[in-house]
Amino acid sequence: MRVIALALGRSLTAAFHRTVGVPLKTSNKLAPFTFCTQTISEQSELGLKNSSSNGDEAPKMLSLRIERLPRGESIGYVFQKWMGEGFPVHRGDIFHAINRLRKLQLHKRALEVMEWVIREKPYRPKELDYSYLLEFTIKLHGISHGERLFTNTPVEFQNDLLYNNLVIACLDKGVVRLSLEYMKKMRELGHPISHLIFNRLIILHSSPRRRKMIPKILAQMRADKVSPHVSTFNILLKIEANDHNIEGLMKVFGDMKRANIEPNEVTYCILATAHAVARLYCGCETYVEAVEKSKTGNNWSTFDVLIILYGYMGKAKEIDRIWRIVQGLPHVRSKSFLLAIEAFGRIGQLNRAEELWEEIKSREVMKSTEHYNSIISVYGQNGFIDKVSGLFKEMKMFGCKPNAITYRHLTLGCLKAGLTKEALKTIEMGSKQFTSSKLKKSTPWLETTLSILEMFAENGDVETAENLFEELKQANYTRYTFVYNSLIKAYVRAKNRSYRGVIHVSANPTQPQGRVLREAQSIPVNPGQPRRLGEVQLETKQDVESIMLDVEKILQNSLSCSDCVICLDSFDVAKNDHDVDNGGVKVLEQCGHRFHSFCIQRWLTKHQTCPLCRTCIQSTI
């Protein structure tokens, strides 16, 4: 399944939740210090010689030779063979290899490379070489060994770069107190503190329980005269997006513009994705255009996000265009295939989704449950329960164990096919699976759960709908109006008076939309045969109509919104002379939402729905 935050290449949700205090001076007895942990042995040299004499031509890049070195073999012979062929070991070759190894999570191999460089000195080591050595030493051997390495580093290289890397490495281990001690020492020595340190601190304090510390971190950042960076604002934006807080998201974006920080493609990807998840498709479309203009080069992660966003907006031609670009890249990741399958499935093009599924099956062996979940989600959304069941059996045959999200997709497929009893059994089976809190807060899980809630609401199953609603509430997904609409529909279908409390709760911060309540008004009520499906029954038509009275008050409150969601300007700002003449605001009769007259007129020339709630607008303005 798609993972929007993953597509952006930001590990924002993996924040540490513990703070370990480590004294600045440790009394642990350590072995005699050495820069090297491994020497070349004749046995490893012979093994590498045999592995490279298989008839294949040796790679012409040093980094590739290091990556392909068999596990357990010494790094020294790679360099000996490289120099034996007449190639010098340049600083650029080493840095390129280190960056590749870091990306591949081959930290042990990266440490071996830097130990060889410090020991053999193919060139004169500088502060960046010692910085890399310090980074991977702490990753593999811990902070105490890294501190000892730091004290044994030549004094001329104990500068701001080495201190910054030491603090970042400590923060990566979750040791905040020690990091703050080193930051204090950096201030005393006059070393500048990098914005990357503050980025790590913000990530460490991104959990709801510790988020109150973020303003203090930003204040300290200003006190240390650290220039604001676009990556810092991107982290703050992602925190608000993960919390489904559109208001907070736009506040951070406003702060970013006031600080004269130029947004990049990552910024616009976060904004567009947040608006798409909130079903604010007008804002999403605006930011998608900004992504297209700001993207640099062939960044596969940006293309993945664009595929997701165009799937939300239902633009088949744009999905095709982006997918053709992705296919032209040197390597197409399986993740991109899965996102394209889901995007085509979302817009109803099952044939294209099935073609991509067959293509990825021909490319690689299906060994991951994630692969099957993508196509199962497509069939589940469209109610093809027979195909879902077939894939369910196939994945078991290939040794892929169904997980909690698999059962959710299967439940949705059963409901779409009208198999309510089977859906209840399936959702119960899925509840027995281990489900991490990270999965329960992911967008695929929340959207699938909401689709299931809507189906149970349509059937008037209040109990199941309430249970699913509570699950969405724990993930803050109930910040959105449409989630409350689904629960209200369940009460209305069941003729249960509990809707009143839900309506007033949803008034802040969201309001139910008129479409659900028009459905409530249209439900016939037979006073002679009341239907008891909840604690309180609705016995007369006046009881149902009272829903409308409650909602009219709430819709009046919704009209107090001070900004037009199309242009994001205040209603006090007139867009042209015509807006000045008629008050500047147009209220849509079908749903009650209001916009600048000029903005909504321009919008309706291209669309036939409300920008906020997607209600069909019959009349033209």
TrEMBL record:
Tell me which GO cellular component terms the UniProt record holds.
mitochondrion
Gene3D superfamilies assigned to the protein according to its UniProt record, in alphabetical order: Tetratricopeptide repeat domain, Zinc/RING finger domain, C3HC4 (zinc finger)
UniProt cross-references to InterPro entries, sorted A to Z? PPR_rpt (IPR002885), TPR-like_helical_dom_sf (IPR011990), Znf_RING (IPR001841), Znf_RING/FYVE/PHD (IPR013083)
User: Which family does the UniProt entry place this protein in?
Assistant: Belongs to the PPR family. P subfamily.
Q: What is this protein called?
A: RING-type domain-containing protein
Q: Which residues form the RING-type domain?
A: 564-614
NCBIfam families, sorted: PPR
Q: Which GO terms describe its molecular function?
A: mRNA binding; zinc ion binding
User: Which top-rank group of organisms is this from?
Assistant: Eukaryota
PROSITE patterns cross-referenced by the UniProt entry: PPR, ZF_RING_2
Q: Where are the PPR repeats?
A: 368-402
Q: Which UniProt keywords apply?
A: Metal-binding, Repeat, Zinc, Zinc-finger
Organism ancestry: Eukaryota, Viridiplantae, Streptophyta, Embryophyta, Tracheophyta
